[in-house]
């Protein structure tokens, strides 16, 4: 009887742990009700050095990805794939916008973002700005982002960023319209973007 009771408690703790992991991102985008504009108002800086706000996510559908320029694999892979999908579904860039927003504004200045993004795509706009304002925007869009020291003994030394790896899809009114997961099947990703364009 005691062993059964212990087993039940272990199962409860495992489920609680999984739910906690999912609630803090789990590498994927959170579930969001598709009513009204997604996220929060913001005023940041585009890679060209010009002010940019949530109004950039209006008028046309948008694909929005949060990452950072020191990212070893997820971010460059996602940006490269996203650029290819954009060229396939919207060759002239008239129907869909795309943005790369840093979760590491301390290192990713607009100038750095411009250098980084321009090497991958002419279709994707990098966004950075004042670190506090950037992180307010990141939290407001329910994106998970956490600094991870490369060496726990040197918390103020080099670091990486653990962050949500999905591409957020927003409709022309800024409403949440779904996500493209990291390493999504390319055909599925293209179909999601085509559906987003059709929805407008």
From TrEMBL:
Residue span, Thioredoxin domain: 33-200
Transmembrane residue ranges: 6-24
Keyword presence, Acetylation: no
Stated name of the protein: Protein SCO1/2
Protein's UniProt keywords contain Transmembrane helix: yes
Family: Belongs to the SCO1/2 family.
Paired cysteines (S-S): 71-75
Source superkingdom: Bacteria
Keywords: Copper, Disulfide bond, Membrane, Metal-binding, Transmembrane, Transmembrane helix
PANTHER family found in the cross-reference section: ELECTRON TRANSPORT PROTIN SCO1/SENC FAMILY MEMBER, LINALOOL DEHYDRATASE_ISOMERASE DOMAIN-CONTAINING PROTEIN
Pfam families, per the entry: SCO1-SenC
Gene Ontology molecular functions: metal ion binding
Binding-site list for Cu cation: 71, 75, 163
InterPro entries: SCO1/SenC (IPR003782), Thioredoxin-like_sf (IPR036249), Thioredoxin_domain (IPR013766)
